[in-house]
Amino acid sequence: MKKRSVEINQFLKWFSEYYQQHPEQEVKDDHFYNALKYYSCSTDEVKNGSIAPLFSKWKDYFKNNLQLHVYSSEKQPGFLQFANGNQNRHVKIVLSFPKEKIEEAVIKIMDFIAEEEMPTKSKVATAIRADGVILRMANFDDALSLLTFLKKEDFKVAKDTNPFMFKEGVAAVTYDNYLSYNRVLSFLLEGYFKMCRRTKALKKVSYKHFREYAKQFVEEVFRNPKLIQASFLSNGIKPGFNSVGAMIVNYEQVLKLILLQLDDKMNMQTYQNFYQSVRNDQVVLPMEAYYNELMKNYRAKENGDLDKGFAENLLIDYINYIYQLNDMDAVFSYLSAYMNGFTTAITRKNNYRQNFLMYLPPSEIARIVKGDLKKFLDNYAAKTGEVSKIEVLTEETKLVEEEPSGVLLLNDYIRFAIGKYGIKGAATYLMSFVEGNILAITRTNNFRDRFYYELTPQAILEITQNDLLGYIESYANKYGIDSESFGGRK
Asked: Which residue of 30, 158, 172, 321 lies most exposed, with the fewest beta carbons within 10 A?
């Protein structure tokens, strides 16, 4: 069996050659969507793959089944629905069967789901396609049971699904909630090939090249409300979403899953970690509120509705916030790092980082403080009665300016966690997060949300070189923290 990365590479190379040979052809997301939809399907199956006559047979077969409602919907005329609830945020399992085998396969699968009384919102397409059978399971354990069932001999006739989803047996596993995984992927592929054509880099198209593009896109777009607006909101809110923020979070979830899927090592454990995060309302709901506020402020700025003193007020509000949590030295350190190009020095809490990026670029702060941040904060500290200790950047702050954002966040958390839990405690909580428990990370200082969006378990293992406790002890030693006093190993 080919590695998925090899199949993805072949998929990309085909389009690279096609667009090189047809320079007049506009790059469109539909090209990629159709290729994904009919991946591994023969020309005959694409032309003559209709299975619409089977719909009446399946309806008749399940008409007396109290555990499964089988029906056609005007909202999705291209599918037959198999449902017994109105849940969302499902595990999505994708299958494809040959035309002559699909009738029996669907009956066996839906019989199993009904007999086990599994909540589901599944559907089958009117034609043979690479994602013709879509099983949406409301419970992760039910999904695991179904995947085990699908490994039986009966289903080995299944066809290949597209390689951008990892396989568990004969099925592919993914997630998209109210969006379409393949549509979002097609949008990403469209942007990638437009970029390659614009930069005359079609000959460089490859799996690794696309993966780097996707990673950079995800890192950049969700930090920039202008890009968010252009990428996801130009046509308004899609059906199913109750707010702009909810739709943006769903896009971010799907795009982050695409990044995970662009790895041959993707497996059910990785997927479970991801799935737990998208079902965790303690993370999801604050992020929805965060994006709602972000886009409201962005639109207010675009419409010229903001007070002219907004930038100055924002800076003072941030200084007050950090000052109350720490001291003026911390304010100076974070603002200095930000003014030297390290944007993640500004916390996401209260939407500060995004507001800084929109309204307080380093040049604007320099204007407000008249080129002297130290003097500005000294004066502020004097007004509030604090004896300022601000002299120069500490060695650690200098290090912050040179470190990648993931390292900064990890070190920020370690510094906090050592003081609260001790070295072993800090290692224990980080390991729990690495193993998939995002609730192990405290919400204090917005750490949990920041970890969710900025620091994956895999990134932590790479930074620490698979030695969390050793990394934490090394950090403690570097900054003069007595590891034994916090229960470290002797």
From this structure: 30
User: Is it the case that residue 396 has pLDDT exceeding 60?
Assistant: no
Residues 6+ apart with CB under 8 A from 77: none
Residue 251: per-residue pLDDT: 97
Is residue 130 within 8 Å of 41, Cβ to Cβ?
Answer: yes
Q: Which residues of 136-174 are buried (b: 16+ CB within 10 A; e: fewer)?
A: bbbebebbebbbebbeeeebeebbbbbbbbbbbbbbbbb
H/E stretch holding 115:
helix 102-115
User: Between residues 56 and 463, which one has the greater pLDDT?
Assistant: 56
One-letter amino acid at 485 equals: S
Alpha-carbon distance of 273 to 457, in angstroms, equals 9
Q: What is the pLDDT of residues 60-75, one digit of tens each?
A: 999 999 999 999 998 8
Task: Identify the residue with better confidence: 283 or 115.
Answer: 115
- Model confidence at 484, pLDDT cuts 50, 70, 90, reads very low
Angle at which helix 29-37 crosses helix 4-21, to 10 degrees, equals: 140
Alpha helices in 344-445 (DSSP H): 352-359, 362-368, 373-384, 395-402, 405-434
Which among 95, 76, 84 is positioned nearest to 139, based on CA atoms?
84
Of residues 280, 325, 257, the one with CA closest to residue 433:
280
- What tens digit of pLDDT does each residue of 26-54 get? 999 999 999 999 999 999 999 999 999 99
Q: Is 176 left (phi over 0), alpha (psi -120 to 50) or beta?
A: alpha
Q: What is the pTM of this model?
A: 0.68
The strand ranges marked E within 295-350 are none
How far apart are alpha carbons 329 and 331 in whole angstroms? 5
The string of DSSP codes covering 57-112 is HHHHHTTT-TT-EEEEETTEEEEEEEES----S-EEEEE---TTTHHHHHHHHHHH
pLDDT in tens, 413-459: 888 888 788 888 888 889 888 887 777 888 777 677 677 767 778 78
Distance CA(224)–CA(352), nearest Å, equals 13
> Are 109 and 93 a contacting pair, CB within 8 Å?
no
Q: Measuring CA to CA, how many Å separate 166 from each of 45, 145, 158?
A: 24, 17, 15
| Cβ pair 162, 151 in contact under 8 A | no
